[in-house]
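Sorry to interrupt, but I need a hand with the structure work. It will help me judge whether the discrete encoding reads sensibly. Write everything out right here, beneath this request:
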Amino acid sequence: MANVESLLKRANRTFESVKVELEEKIKTPDFAKCVSEKLNDLGLTSNDYDISTLDYKVEGDSAEVSVVALGSLPKLMNGCFRFSVKNSNEGYDITSVVYSGLGQDDKTYNIPLV
């Protein structure tokens, strides 16, 4: 029984360290730059979103990241962009972007990994 408890404690520490590592990566200016590049790849400009509103919630080795849309285009009014981010050895993989607008259908954009 002691071995099982020891394994569980070790697994929990590993889980927490992966979470902390991803949080640290998300807090870097490079991550905000990467998010901006992904939005620009979708044909948006810095007038369409506010990168300073970047917010995140980490769950294990992945995170949900959001950036507020500014509404400079009517279709972007009152919404935000949500990113699914996965931790990887090279840094982070942004696997998808979803735009959520109020009263509109969500639009999902699959973005190739860089």
User: Anything to note?
Assistant: The chain has two helices and five strands. The CA atoms of residues 13 and 67 lie 30 Å apart.
